[in-house]
Each structure stands twice: as C-alpha cells, then as structure tokens.
Protein 1
Amino acid sequence: MSRQLLPDVDSRLCTLCGDCVDVCPTECLSIARDCEVVLVPQACINCAVCEAVCPATAITMRTQDW
Ligand code: SF4
Ligand code: SF4
C-alpha cells in the first residue's frame, strides 16, 4: 500500500466537463463510461493542477492510501 497526496473527486459536484483530464500533465485522469472521473494513482505527480482548474471545485487534494 502507498500513501500519497491525490485528487479526490466529489461526484456530486463534478459536471464531467473534462477540464481536469485535459490539463493533467501525466494523463492519469480519464472519464469512464461517461459517468465518473477515474485516476491512475501510480502516474499522479501531485501537482494539483486538476484541483486548480476544476470549474466546479469538485477536486480536493487529500492524502490517500491506495
Ligand atoms: S495532481 Fe497533477 S498529476 Fe495528479 S491527477 Fe491532478 S493534474 Fe494529474
Ligand atoms: S474538471 Fe472538475 S467538473 Fe470537470 S471533469 Fe474534472 S472533476 Fe469534473
């Protein structure tokens, strides 16, 4: 198990606009089945650009286990 600062997406706020997917420098975010944002944690470099760009403020960087 790893512990790391990662984006936490609040699905109640997310509008699936795709902005976070577009800006992520390591392409570790995607929209799955047109219904949720999915993260590949191994590829995340904790830059928080996704959190900054989200127009719905649906992303919060949190320390998470994976
Ligand atoms: S913190 Fe950076 S690397 Fe990680 S998902 Fe967000 S934009 Fe991508
Ligand atoms: S930028 Fe925010 S609202 Fe848009 S898909 Fe990502 S988490 Fe959802």
Note: Helices lie at 19-23, 49-53.
Protein 2
Amino acid sequence: MLSEEEALILKTAERIGTIVGRDYWLRCAREKKRPDLLWGELLKTNLTSVGVKKISGTGLLEAVLVQEGLARAGLPLLQFLTTHLSRTVIARYGTEQQFEKFVRPTCEQGKKISFCITESEAGSNTWRIRTFAKRRNGGYILNGQKTFITGARESDYLLIVARTKRYEDVEDKKDGISLFVVETNTSGISFEALNIELYSPETQYTVYFDSVELGDENLIGQADKGVNYLFDCLNVERMLIAACSIGLGDHVLKRAVEYAKQRVVFDRPIGSYQGLQFRMARAKAHLEAARSLNYHAARLFDGGGKVGAEANMAKLVASEAGLEAFEIAMQTFGGNAYDLDTDIITFYPVIRLFITAPVTNELVLSYIGRHVLGLPKSY
Ligand SMILES: Cc1cc2nc3c(=O)[nH]c(=O)nc-3n(C[C@H](O)[C@H](O)[C@H](O)COP(=O)(O)OP(=O)(O)OC[C@H]3O[C@@H](n4cnc5c(N)ncnc54)[C@H](O)[C@@H]3O)c2cc1C
C-alpha cells in the first residue's frame, strides 16, 4: 500500500514521537509549555518540510504520514496540521514572495501557521463570517474576531479567512471571501486563551483583529475569490485530521491489545474473551479501511484530482474508527481506564474532537448526501 520511501516517513515520524514521548507531551500540557523538543526533532530530520513539493519533493500523502506517525506515538500535533493546510494554499495560489516569506520558514526553521476561520456567531455556516477587510489604498483594514484558533499566539503567522464583501451585499454567498496571511505580531491582533482541556500542549484562543493594517502583499490570490482556495485548505484539513484519528486509534488499540494479553481474570487473559476480542478486531478492521481511503484521497489530491467526496468520507470513517478504538480500549482497561495515570481516558477529548472539528460529521454527511448521492439540499 505504501512505497518504501513512504513507509519510511511514517516510521520516522512514529519513532520521533516515541523518542520524544507521550510523557513529555503530557508534561508540556500540564505546565502549559510549547512542545519545542518535538518541533526541534522534526526540524532536525527535515520532517517539517514534508508535503512542500518545491522544497522536499513530497506531497500531501507524505504529510498525512507524518501526522499519522506522530499520532501513533500518542502525539496529536495539531499545529503541524494547521501549518500544512495553510502553507498548501500559499504555495498553490500565493506569490513567489509569499512562498519565500511564509512557507519556506515553516520548512527550514520550523515556523508555524494557525488557521483562522471559525467565528462564534457563524458557527458551521462559514458564509456568515463577519470578520471584514475593508479596501483602502494599497491594502486593507481588518476588523473582527475568530474563536477556537489552535496555537494562535504560539504561531508565527496566521492564515485568516475574511469577507471583503458583506454577506448581505452579495447575490452568491461564495462571493466576497478573501484569504490573508499575516505575521502574528502585527499591530492590532490580540489573543485570549480558552479554557479547553485536550491533554495536549496546544492552546485554543479567541483572536481579535482591531483595525489591523494589511498590505496587498498579505492577500492570497485574488480578492473576493478566496472560496476557490479555501476548498483546498478544508480538504487538506479533513485528510490530516483523518490521519490523526487513525494514528490515535492505532495507539489506544495497541495499548488495549497489550493489556488484554497480560491481564488475567477468571484464570484467562481477558483478550481471549470474545466480548472484548471481537470489538478489538472490528476496530482494527475499521482503522485499516479508513487508512486505505485516506491514502487514496491524499494520492488523488497529489495527482491534481477533485477530492471533496474522498476527503469527506475519509474524515467521517476515520473519526468514527478512532472513537471506536478508544471505546474498546476504555472497556479493556476496566476501572483502570479511569485513572488519569493509566493515560487512556486522557485520549478521549482529542479523539472525540475529530467528530466535531474541523467540521462536524453532520456537515460531512450532508456533503456526502448532497454531492455524492445527489439528494436534496437540507440547508
Ligand atoms: C479544540 C478545538 C480546536 C479547534 N481549532 C480550530 C482552529 O484551529 N481554527 C478554526 O478556525 N477553528 C477551530 N475549531 C473550531 C471548529 O472547527 C468548530 O468548533 C466546528 O467547525 C463546529 O462549529 P461550531 O462549534 O460553531 O458548532 P455549530 O455550528 O454551532 O454546530 C453545533 C451542532 O449543530 C449541528 N449542526 C449545525 N448546522 C447543521 C445542519 N445544517 N445540519 C445538521 N446539523 C447541524 C452541528 O453538526 C453540531 O453538532 C476548533 C474547535 C475546537 C473545539
């Protein structure tokens, strides 16, 4: 299924994740520290440049493998995901200067990009975002706010989805969306941390834009046409999230299998009881199916194909397979699963997150219903 080189990327990411270690990850989360050691290792081994064709000669599939490998070691590094989906559109639709300024440093210096689309009032209805970039001579003035933005304050750059025409003023809701990339320390941008527990060191923020001055050099591609670029971002995000779900599912299932072989109750290892064994076997089969679909979707993207259907389906089945693996791991560990020190229940918030984010599975199902099956629109 994977070539030798591809398998090596997956193995290397998992090995780095294992060496850096889940203990380090949880310690950073507890002490609210950035996982710099992990980023340092990714940089040393050139994994930060994986997925950027012009620099490393690799594509989305390889980035998916990095994300999956890290998650297999128990390290769901969401800032790799936000960085990669953001730099994909800059590399595809931005200028040469934007590539040099914002993409190259993510590869060669481990710089990070946060992706800012969610607004509390609009919710899943992205068309209703209100963050607005008003045209002025040589640039724009940006006002508004975004919420739930992963790693925003710790990132070097922000990719911002804003309206350059108000929703009320356009006939087609897709018209008037623009994408901007800015340095995080630009004047007028501020952050407020949210109180979210994922047992991960990456914090979510509300980000405020207060008359932020942007130049034309901050705009990606054409003004008002950002929706064309946005679909690339969102599909890439779905496949990287799928990779994270699958990798974390692999991790908790492996731990459950190891425990089930050793733990003896009623004179037999609990893994021999089919109530547990069949559920573990089913979770394994579903993880493998999700993995195949996700690799297929990533290969299609790398080949320049349309991936809406495949990326959405991969996100759906991977998030469900990850959660299924977590559920059986919980049951296998019995009461011990509830002890935070066993480090099983600590996976729940992040594995469950992928049912809700970056897009809820209801919206994914709506997409499949409408665009794949041709059923009538529900909203
Ligand atoms: C930990 C975390 C990290 C995040 N990181 C980022 C980030 O880095 N950048 C970013 O931009 N965003 C981020 N998000 C935001 C995330 O993408 C949103 O939470 C997600 O898209 C859901 O939007 P919402 O929370 O507004 O839910 P809502 O839109 O309020 O939805 C609530 C419920 O209603 C259902 N629903 C809504 N409309 C329909 C419909 N038409 N049909 C059926 N059901 C419907 C939804 O499926 C959902 O179950 C993050 C969120 C979290 C929790």
Note: The chain has a mean pLDDT of 97.
Protein 3
Amino acid sequence: MEDNRIEIDSGLCSGCGACVSVCPTGTISLVDGKAVVSGTESISCGHCEAVCPQGAVRVLAIDQEMSHFQTFRAENDWLAPGRYSTSGLVQLMASRRSCRCFADKPVDRALLEDLIKIGVTAPSGTNCQAWTFTVMPTRKAVLSVAEHIASYYRKLNSTAEKTLLRLFLKMIGKGELDAYFHGYYQKVKRALEHWQDAGREHLFHGATAAIVVGSRPGASCPAEDALLATQNILLGAHSMGLSSCLIGFAVAAMKRDPSIQLTLGIPSAEQIHAVIALGYSDEVYQHTTGRKKVTSRYFEG
Ligand SMILES: Cc1cc2nc3c(=O)[nH]c(=O)nc-3n(C[C@H](O)[C@H](O)[C@H](O)COP(=O)(O)O)c2cc1C
C-alpha cells in the first residue's frame, strides 16, 4: 500500500477551508473551525498543500527532492493562468524537432536526472504516477540496445520475405506481417544495409543517451500518463540545449521481443510506451514551420 497520509498542523490552520474546497476526493473536512483529515481516499495530488495560505498541510507521499533540480533552479511560485508567455511557449514547442543526426558528445547524467523530474510534472490518471524511466546514459549503452533491436529487425525482415507465409497469415486474419512488409520492410532493409556498410546507425541516429518510458501494472491510463511525461521530457530537453527523437521502431521491437526489455533490466510486468533518443544535435534550422491543416469540429449543444 502506498502512503497516502496527509498531515495538517492545527496550530497553523486558519480554518479558511481552501483545502476542503480543492480536494478532489473529499478527504478533508472542517471540524470546529479547523481542517482535519476525515477520509482515506486521498490520491496525494497535493492540491491541499498547494492551496493552503498558512503552509499547514503536508502530503507525505510528495517527495520534496523531486522539485529540486541539479542543473537549474526552478521557481516554485505558482503561475496563475495567463501568467506565462504563450508566445515563448509556442516558440519552444515549435522549435523542438526530431533530431536524426546527433553529435558524438555525451550527455551529463545530471541533465538526464533533471529531465525525468521534468517529465513527472505531467498529469496522470487518478494521480497514480505509475510511470517508469529506464536510462541509457552513454552511447555505449544506446548502441548495445540498438544492436539488439537491429537483430530483431533482421529476423523480422527475413520472415517477411516469405511471401507464402505472409499471405497465409493474412488469410487467417493475421495481416500484421504483410502490413509490415508493405509499410516498412524496404526502409528497414536499406537502413540495416547502410548501418552495416557505412557504419551509420539509423535507429537511434547516433544518440548518446536515451530514456525508455514505461508503466507499472495497475495504472488507470498507463499509455496516456507515460506519453504526457514523454512530451514534457522532449520540451524540457530542448530548453536545456539537448535534442531528442522518439524511436517508435524501438518501442515496436520491445513490445514484440520481450528479451530486449529484459536486457534493459525492465521487468516483464512493465509496459513500454516510448523510447526517447537524446543528445546534442548537429542539425541547425533557420525557422519553425507549421503543421498540416486541421479542421476542427464544433458541437454547440
Ligand atoms: C510515436 C512516434 C514514433 C516515432 N518514431 C520515430 C522513429 O522510430 N524514428 C524516427 O526517426 N522518428 C520517429 N518519430 C518522429 C516523427 O517522425 C516526427 O515527430 C514527425 O516527423 C514530426 O517531426 P518533428 O518531431 O520534427 O516535429 C516518431 C514520432 C512519434 C510521435
């Protein structure tokens, strides 16, 4: 059982009731003009602690260390809605680009540790925070995983070359191999050949670090939580001078070949949702670009 206790210092509590109003689980009540913990359903979201003007509330599951970063100082004053530069935020978001040419420069471990703390500022279903992070901190580690994944794709490609097998599987409702053949086979074949002949690693694009984002069992929305944390890491990385690239090919291989996950020391009960290649980019852009047109749908009631 996780510790979901809340401590309220009744000497400091002014009885304003702000913590009672903000609590999503009705865990706190006002008794004789003081806030008291009356329920057991706390999800340790920390809203009560954040809203208390007296600093009287403490959520025990919140680790203060998670708000202290090694490579920069974070302000912990709350920014009310509208108190941040939208223009700056959008410029950061649009400036993050997937990097496919990393420089041969190591990433400081402190940056990787800070990135994970940035990741977990994301929301999570019922605040369960069941995400997991597995760090490959060096080029050597990334390359050894890349080689493991490459051997998975070599085997997959040689299976996909068997036309009769592909068509038989498709006929019995298992069309994945045929879809892979038509969608990715050639691309993967070329990348593997180029890797072998020219020594250019095309999976992690030469990244000197990587983070695998997964989830422990039991989360209500494991994929959503992990991907929200992932997006935070991508943006945080850009702001810290790092570049990144999501590696869907690595996720697909890890999902289909459990031995890759185990090689990384990730228990089989955990699910993998994202693999983030990280490092310093050799690519320089002149400006940001937009996206394809989106036509929104409105429902007016
Ligand atoms: C789920 C997901 C998986 C991806 N997998 C790969 C990949 O395996 N290799 C790669 O080079 N890029 C990969 N990308 C990067 C996309 O190609 C990229 O986000 C897209 O082209 C838009 O470019 P941008 O990220 O620079 O804005 C992936 C992106 C996402 C969201």
Note: The two ends are 44 Å apart (CA to CA).
Protein 4
Amino acid sequence: MHELSITEHILQYALEEAQKIGAQKIRIIRIVLGPFSGLVPECIQMYLDLLSEGTIAQGAKIEAQILPLKVRCRDCGKESEITRRHIACPYCGSLRLQVLSGKEFYIDSLEVDVNEYKSPSSSHGME
Ligand SMILES: [Zn+2]
C-alpha cells in the first residue's frame, strides 16, 4: 500500500530530529496509528529496514501504538472509544455506530543514543 511513502516520511523526520539533538543512533521510532489508518506496522518496519541502510536509523525498531476507535451511537447519541473487537455502543449496546476517527497517523517519539550527556530522556524544549 502506501507504507513506502509513509516510511520515507518517518525516516526523514527521524533523521532530522536526531540531527537536531546530535544523536549518533536512532533506536526506536514510536508511531501512533488509528485502527483504520490502513497502515501495517510490520510493513513500515520492513521498508524502514531497507531505507535506513547506511543511516543512523539502521536497525531502528518501529513501535506502533494503535488508538481506540472513536464512535458516536446513532441510537443514544453518546460518543465513546472502542478498543474491543466487538463493536457496539458501551452505553446501550446498539450496533448503529458512526465512526468519528480512526485514520490518524503520527510520529510520537524517538529513542536515540546521544554521546554527550544532555538529559537523554527529554525530547522537547531543546534548541
Ligand atoms: Zn448507544
């Protein structure tokens, strides 16, 4: 599918961010996916393995977090997040649900190696 272009985007972003903080190696790239994003984390990992060869992201692992599905019940009107396999309104049990989200995709965080001692865990607020 479109994992290849997504992975190019992820890799470029990761390399830029790593460069900003002077990282020597990218270990983990954490991404967040909606359940209907159409993206398969294993495919992204496979493309990353290919694309990252010779870069500091070589060998980096993709860690994907799948978001719950946001729905609105057409019967009782309540909004809820569904993580179970059985998709039904948690309030009234209705199966008539409108899907509000599910195609999200974004890069959450990176885990990198930095040689200098510059608080390795803080990923924001650095200039
Ligand atoms: Zn309901």
Note: The beta strands are 23-33, 61-66, 69-73, 79-82, 97-99, 105-114.
